[in-house]
Structures are given as structure tokens and as C-alpha cells.
Design goal:
- Its EC number is 2.1.1.-.
- Belongs to the methyltransferase superfamily. METL family.
- GO terms for molecular function: tRNA (cytidine-3-)-methyltransferase activity.
- The protein is built from twelve helices and 13 strands.
- The strands form three sheets. Strands 3-12-13-8-7-4-5-6 form an eight-stranded mixed sheet. A three-stranded antiparallel sheet has the order 9-10-11, with no helix packed on it.
- The radius of gyration is 20 Å and the shape is globular.
- It binds S-adenosylmethionine (SAM).
- The site of S-adenosylmethionine (SAM) has 22 residues, from helix 3.
């Protein structure tokens, strides 16, 4: 295929994948020699210009009534998105296991590399040009999904089905799906399974069980109907991570890993802490929460126009989906308040280059790993 660059994919050198942060731009004259540069230093002027841009695009806020609509109907806006795009984007997650080896701890590294290069060969032709930028879902895709949509209010059969299963599970917690597994991973806001399926394919540990949830029933239906979905190894369910009344179908202290990829940024900031607290209780002592998400002053933030700002650093796209841009400190506070300990909290500043159009795009992502202490104090 013509090649495409997923969100923040590390550069490749000599056929070997590298972790983020290994191709440095020391000579600015060489900027168009590669598609991407790591750990780009921002000049003071550039940082000041970004501040100005954010101040400018935040002056006019979305009307309160409209803000209520975006909150109440958040899942419907995402359903609309997935009805249009289904699972046609960002399939290439070959960076996943380099950045988060915890997702396949027992895999032999060579075996992993084989699988990864295999999946690279299988990259899908419908994936967009690598020069289009590395957003998980590009702003352009969000734009297209806003046209001609009407919200559908009926509950999809899959949702009813899952809800029934969930209420049953609340009662029989000793027989929850995956209760016999010894390594359990939950992906929250899994979308159409672009992370879950690579995990199932790569991590062949027979004791592994993967849970995944999203509040978009359309996304979950796409996961469940995917030919790679195997209900003996995986359980996909509809769940709103902001819903305090609905329990997860998993007992507390039972998960080894919880992964959040560009999902926390999609929820309203004042609900983030409670959502993380609840997730934290599901982790086993020693279990880890992994996150990759948008950082403050990422190109996507600077591109918002006046009138799209909901609150400080929180915006709504043309299709009604929302996005927050984090600082490292904010994420640190969220995780440590939930009783977790920092293992990693790094900012990934990349310069993406469109060599054809001679354009530069400054991306900022944050990657975190926080562990639940062995003697845990994450509340009831
Ligand atoms: C940017 S997409 C990322 C999807 C997925 N993590 C991936 O890597 O492809 C954000 C996802 O979060 C989901 N989401 C947003 N708010 C949510 C909430 N309150 N509860 C559960 N899922 C939510 C959306 O439906 C969407 O699938």
C-alpha cells in the first residue's frame, strides 16, 4: 500500500522498529529528508504562538444548551461516526507492543517482530496517506462524519443483549467471563477493536482474557461481528465509563492491565477523576493502567476555530465528538489521586512532515503507565 503513519508510529531504521524518541532532527535543513522526527524541541516563539492560538480559539465558547446536547448524546455522535467509518481507519498499531510490552509479556521478542512485520505487510489500502498526519482519527474523518446524520434513538439488539448479560453477571461475580484466566486486560473506549485484535493475535498465552468496552453500541457491534472475535478469549460490552451507576462486569482487584488509547480525552474533564478512580479499583495490586492521548498544543488543538471550544483545552469537532488536550501534570494528578504510582509519564513531541506538500505538523502526545501498589489504598 502507499503507506500510512498511524498515530505517532515510531520511525523504522534498517527494518528494525524503534521506540518513540529515536530519530532526532539536528540539522533543520534536513527536515524534509524523513517523514517524522522525534523529541522535537519547540522554540520559545513557537510555544508563544501556540499559546496565542489557543487563547484565540478559546475566546468564544459553545452555548450551554448545545454543550448539554454534546454531553447527553455523546454516544450517539460516536455511533454516527462508526456508522460512517466502520472499521476502516488506523488499523496499523505496530507501535503497540514496542511501547506497551505489558500487553504481551510472555511473548518472545523475535516472534513479536515476525508478527509485526507480517501485519505491516497486511496494512490496508484504504488507510490514508501517511502524510495525512497521525491522529487516531483524523480531524478530516470527523468532518466527513458530521454530514447528513440523524441520531437513532432505538437500542440496538447487541446492546440489549449485553445489558442482559451484564445484569446477570452482577449477581454471579464468581462466574464472570474470563474468570478462569490468569492474565486479564481491559481496553476502555475500544472503538472497533484496533487494539484488541492485535493483542489477541499477538499474545497467545492460553491464560489471557481480553475485555473491551465502548459506549458506542455501533462500535461494539463491529467488534463482536469481526471474524477475529473469539468469545472464549474476549468479551466486548457496551459501557459508558462516566456512568457511575453501572458496574463493570468484572470484580475489583481482577485486572492486570487497563488500556486507554485516545479515550480519556473524549470525556468531559470534570468526570475524568471518578472514571479513573473506578477503573483503578478493578486493577489487581501490581496491575497497570496504560494511556496514550493528546497533549497540550498538539496540532489538532491549534487547528480548532473560534466557536468550537467547550471549556479550557476541551473542544468539539464538526461531527459532535469532543477532545481534551492534556498536560503531563494533569494526568499525573488523575492517576495518583486514584491511588496509582507513576511508572512512566512522557511527552512525545513529533514533527510529522508532508514531503510532497512541504508541510510540517507538530504533534504532541502523552504516554503514561501507572501501577497499583501492592498494598493498595484505592477506596471502596
Ligand atoms: C478517539 S476514539 C479511540 C478508539 C480506540 N481507543 C482506538 O484506539 O481505536 C475514542 C473512543 O472512545 C469512546 N468513548 C468516548 N467517550 C466514552 C465513554 N464515556 N465511555 C466509553 N467509551 C467512550 C468512543 O466511542 C470512541 O470509540
Amino acid at each position: 500500500m502507499a503507506g500510512f503513519c498511524p498515530e505517532g508510529a515510531p520511525a523504522e531504521a534498517g527494518g528494525k522498529r524503534q521506540q518513540f524518541g529515536s530519530r532526532l532532527l539536528s540539522d533543520p535543513m534536513r527536515v524534509f529528508h524523513h517523514n517524522a522526527w522525534d523529541n522535537v524541541e519547540w522554540s520559545e516563539e513557537q510555544a508563544a504562538a501556540a499559546e496565542r492560538k489557543v487563547r484565540e480559539n478559546s475566546t468564544q465558547r459553545v452555548y450551554p444548551e448545545k454543550q448539554v446536547d454534546y454531553e447527553i448524546n455523546a454516544h450517539k455522535y460516536w455511533n454516527d461516526f462508526y456508522q460512517i467509518h466502520e472499521n476502516r481507519f488506523f488499523k496499523d498499531r505496530h507501535w503497540l507492543f514496542t511501547e506497551f510490552p505489558e500487553l504481551a509479556p510472555s511473548q518472545n521478542q523475535n516472534h513479536l517482530m515476525d508478527l509485526l512485520s507480517e501485519s505491516k505487510q497486511n496494512e490496508l489500502p484504504e488507510c490514508r496517506n501517511k502524510e495525512d498526519g497521525p491522529d487516531l482519527i483524523t480531524e478530516e474523518q470527523h468532518k466527513y462524519s458530521s454530514d447528513g446524520l440523524e441520531h437513532k434513538t432505538q437500542t440496538l439488539p447487541v446492546e440489549e443483549n449485553v445489558t442482559q448479560k451484564l445484569s446477570h453477571l452482577e449477581i454471579c461475580t464468581d462466574e464472570f467471563p474470563g474468570s478462569l484466566a490468569t492474565y486479564r486486560i481491559l481496553e476502555v473506549g475500544c472503538g472497533v477493536g484496533n487494539t484488541v485484535f492485535p493483542i489477541l493475535q499477538t499474545n497467545n498465552d492460553p491464560r489471557l482474557f481480553v475485555y473491551c468496552c465502548d459506549f458506542s453500541s455501533t462500535a461494539i457491534q463491529l467488534v463482536q461481528t469481526n471474524s477475529a472475535y473469539d468469545s472464549s478469549r474476549c468479551f466486548a460490552f457496551v459501557h459508558d465509563l462516566c456512568d457511575e451507576d453501572k458496574p463493570y462486569p468484572i470484580p475489583r482487584d481482577s485486572l492486570d492491565i487497563i488500556i486507554l488509547i485516545f479515550v480519556l480525552s473524549a470525556i468531559v474533564p470534570d468526570k475524568m477523576q471518578k472514571a479513573i478512580n473506578r477503573l483503578s479499583r478493578l486493577l489487581k495490586p501490581g496491575g497497570m493502567m496504560l494511556l496514550r492521548d493528546y497533549g497540550r498544543h498538539d496540532m489538532a488543538q491549534l487547528r480548532f476555530k473560534k466557536g468550537q471550544c467547550l471549556s479550557e483545552n476541551f473542544y468539539v469537532r464538526g461531527d459532535g465528538t469532543r477532545v481534551y488536550f492534556f498536560t503531563q501534570d494533569e494526568l499525573d494528578t488523575l492517576f495518583t489521586t486514584a491511588g496509582l504510582e507513576k511508572v512512566q509519564n512522557l511527552v512525545d513531541r513529533r514533527l510529522q512532515v508532508n514531503r510532497g506538500k512541504q508541510l510540517t505538523m507538530y504533534r504532541v502526545w502523552i504516554q503514561c503507565k501507572y501501577r497499583k501498589p501492592l498494598l493498595s489504598n484505592t477506596g471502596s
